[in-house]
Automatic annotation (TrEMBL), chains A, B:
This is Transcriptional regulator BetI. One of its GO terms (molecular function) is transcription cis-regulatory region binding. PANTHER family: HTH-TYPE TRANSCRIPTIONAL REGULATOR RUTR (PTHR30055), HTH-TYPE TRANSCRIPTIONAL REPRESSOR KSTR2 (PTHR30055:SF175). Keywords: DNA-binding, Repressor, Transcription, Transcription regulation. Residues 8-68 form the HTH tetR-type domain. Transmembrane segments: none annotated. It comes from Streptomyces rubrolavendulae. Pfam families: TetR_C_6, TetR_N. Residues 31-50 bind DNA.
Length: 208, 208
């Protein structure tokens, strides 16, 4: 199906133009015309692929999330290869969370597109659907990892929270750490140290 | 100094027009002209008070933060009056954090203006200054409360984190909980329950 492939490839090129704008001047006030210019195509051509800015934004966000997902799976796979077995739940959870922080160029662009999405989605119920579906799914995944860790006796002794609550706290935490890193309140390294301090509290091997 | 008072009053009226726009359709693509129309004044008049959208945004954000601060102090004062003494650090910290969540109309508008600020500030170093100064100051305040709680033996037994790290984790957490509440991923009540679960872990009176 070469036609379908072409269509998808062109949509990706447009999404990449959107990312370039998102990662330099941001998407506030950016029009379809601006994105068409950045992608070096006519407005009419762009509208053949995306009718609205929001449609384009959701496509770009989904694609960025897919790429992030692939990078994270790659890193989890590398740990598995190194260990010669399935990595422990803590390592998988940490790779997922670290992959969500803006620590390199790619994850930074993802976070910037995420920031633009956020600013628009709070006012648009249809756009919010993306977060409303994706976040609980992610929280379920994390809750599952926390449950496995608990079954393996790898959670810190003492009071532990309901896994879904803990998962939503982790996702919220990474979201805030990302925001304050993008705002320059802290460096990426500091964000990572803070995340690790929190994970250490959840997982710390016995003794406390 | 009636002139100065007038000037300030007019700036507040304009800021309130900006909030109304922020809390309904958002600030993406909103021009000075749009805000002037909402404030029912001419563009020239508005520009007498604010030269740019960002100047207006920072003023609106500061004012919202001042109002939030006043509400929080009021609630801490009410607890003090009820107890007949200074409230414990945990209660003060909780009031501050709860006051940052979008649980009612006022804090919701504050969070929406904050979202618009965030989307712009990630691309503008001058705008970022607001967060870069304000957040570490808030983290110091929270770290101080955590230190007092520690001295009074009110922190949970076991491993406790460096107070500044704990403070930045709390601020990040509330930021993320706010985002996911605005996006409709969770209700305000759920955000509050999750925050309380985390606070309980930090403060839980002995036994674990």
């Amino acid at each position: 199906m070469p036609k379908k492939v072409d269509h998808e490839a062109r949509r990706l090129e447009i999404a990449e133009a959107l990312w370039r704008i998102a990662s330099t001047r941001g998407l506030d006030g950016v029009s379809l015309r601006d994105v068409a210019a950045e992608a070096d195509i006519s407005l009419g051509r762009l509208q053949h692929y995306f009718r609205t800015k929001d449609e384009m934004l959701v496509f770009a966000l989904r694609h960025i999330n897919t790429l992030a997902d692939r990078r994270i799976r790659g890193r989890v796979g590398a740990i598995a290869a190194r260990l010669g077995q399935e990595p422990p739940p803590r390592a998988v959870l940490r790779e997922c969370l670290v992959g969500m922080l803006p620590l390199d160029g790619k994850s930074r662009v993802g976070a910037l597109v995420g920031a633009a999405y956020f600013a628009r989605a709070v006012h648009d119920e249809r756009l919010r659907g993306e977060a409303v579906e994706g976040i609980p799914r992610l929280a379920e995944l994390f809750a599952g990892l926390l449950r496995s860790a608990g079954e393996r006796g790898e959670l810190a002794a003492g009071r532990s929270l309901d896994p879904y609550t803990e998962a939503m706290l982790l996702i919220s935490l990474v979201d805030g750490l990302t925001a304050y890193t993008l705002l320059g309140v802290q460096t990426g390294e500091e964000a990572l140290e803070r995340l690790d301090a929190h994970l250490e509290r959840i997982f710390a091997g016995g003794g406390d």
